[in-house]
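Researcher: Let's do a round of design. I'm pasting the structure tokens now; please hold your answer until I've finished.
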């Protein structure tokens, strides 16, 4: 216990000495000067006491009858006054030093407060710094996780690209196969159509001579009536045609009157066979129903008949407008029922609207939303909606006014 008590005492003494050293270090010089002044004052007090004793002794000696002691007394009084002045000066300096010590103590207190504030702000900054370091570490960890996730996503993207490439190859092969099947189907359909046309032609050929005779008789009567008129242009170019005594024609061995066999039936038969007016006239000439001199003037007669309005006008040969509708093939075209607007659809998966009235080669609107080539387009009866079908088994409806997709549906068999 004694050893521990000694250690404790030594520790306390050492701490007290350190505290005294820290507190007195800034005022060491002032304390030394103050101690010197105190020692000097004590010495002056002792000297003053001695002088007082000597003065009393001298006064006693003077009172007893000393003669030469007046000079010594005067000298001692002067010396006492000088000591008193010096003592007053020392007291004054002591007061100044005390005031300086008080001022320095105030400054020390202010410095201590400032140090405390600085330590508090330092502690707060250290706390903020530690929090920021924790956030930085958390961000580093999240960044590492994001890098790992990015690497994983890149790997998945590469795998998906490979899968997409393989699916594209499969889709191309399926499209090629589908194209081949469509070509085969079109060939078969063309063969069926040719066969059906041949059957229709064989049926119509059986009735064609009687149809030609009926129309030739009607044309003979019209030409004879025109020849009888003196101012008619036909009478100047076409020679007179002998009038046939027979007023009836025969179809299949039975007589048919002109009223029963009208011109509409003849026109329908000509359209079914695929003959135009010129081919019909040539066939009639070759059948011997028109004289040979009329055949020599057939070209002139044909022009005259067209000018008189007996024959139809030829097909138009002038192109009104030409433009590139789509990047690839154009599969469908449809006129609007209410305005001069044309809708086209093509292999570029777009439906385009063209304002023909303005004559512009730029589309009025481009309707998108299809994932395959457009194969058919059509307007409704009001021209406000447009329907488009595509090769992805889809049908879509757009509004013409704002070019927005309204309905999208699919049909799979």
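Researcher: That's everything. Go ahead.
Model: Designed sequence:
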């Amino acid at each position: 216990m004694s050893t521990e008590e000694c250690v404790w005492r030594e520790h306390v003494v050492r701490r007290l000495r350190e505290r005294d050293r820290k507190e007195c270090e800034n005022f060491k010089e002032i304390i030394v000067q103050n101690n010197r002044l105190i020692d000097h004052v004590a010495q002056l007090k002792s000297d003053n006491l001695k002088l007082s004793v000597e003065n009393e002794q001298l006064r006693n000696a003077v009172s007893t009858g000393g003669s030469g002691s007046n000079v010594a007394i005067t000298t001692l009084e002067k010396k006492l006054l000088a000591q008193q002045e010096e003592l007053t000066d020392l007291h004054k300096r002591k007061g100044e030093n005390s005031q300086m010590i008080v001022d320095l103590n105030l400054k020390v207190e202010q410095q201590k407060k400032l140090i405390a504030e600085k330590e508090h702000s330092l502690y707060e900054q250290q706390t903020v710094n530690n929090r920021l370091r924790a956030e930085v570490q958390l961000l580093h960890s999240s960044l590492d996780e994001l890098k790992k996730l990015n690497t994983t996503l890149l790997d998945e993207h590469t795998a998906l690209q490979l899968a997409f490439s393989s699916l594209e190859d499969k889709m191309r092969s399926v499209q090629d196969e589908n194209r081949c099947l469509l070509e085969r189907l079109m060939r078969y359909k063309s063969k069926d159509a040719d066969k059906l046309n041949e059957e229709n032609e064989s049926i119509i050929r059986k009735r064609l001579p009687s149809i030609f005779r009926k129309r030739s008789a009607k044309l003979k009567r019209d030409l004879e009536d025109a020849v009888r008129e003196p101012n008619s242009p036909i009478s100047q170019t076409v020679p007179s045609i002998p009038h046939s005594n027979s007023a009836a024609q025969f179809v299949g061995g039975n007589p048919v009157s002109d009223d029963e066999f009208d011109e509409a039936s003849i026109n329908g038969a000509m359209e079914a066979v695929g003959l135009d007016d010129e081919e019909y006239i040539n066939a009639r000439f070759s059948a011997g129903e028109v004289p040979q001199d009329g055949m020599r003037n057939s070209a002139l007669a044909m022009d005259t008949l067209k000018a008189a309005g007996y024959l139809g006008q030829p097909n138009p040969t002038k192109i009104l407008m030409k433009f590139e509708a789509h990047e690839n093939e154009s599969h469908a075209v449809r006129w609007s029922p209410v305005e001069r607007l044309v809708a086209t659809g093509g292999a570029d998966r777009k439906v385009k609207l063209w304002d023909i009235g303005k004559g512009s080669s730029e589309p009025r609107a481009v309707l998108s939303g299809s994932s395959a080539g457009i194969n058919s387009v059509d307007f409704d009866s009001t021209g406000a909606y447009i329907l488009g079908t595509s090769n992805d088994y889809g049908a879509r409806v757009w509004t013409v006014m704002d070019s927005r997709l309204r309905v999208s549906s699919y049909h799979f068999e």
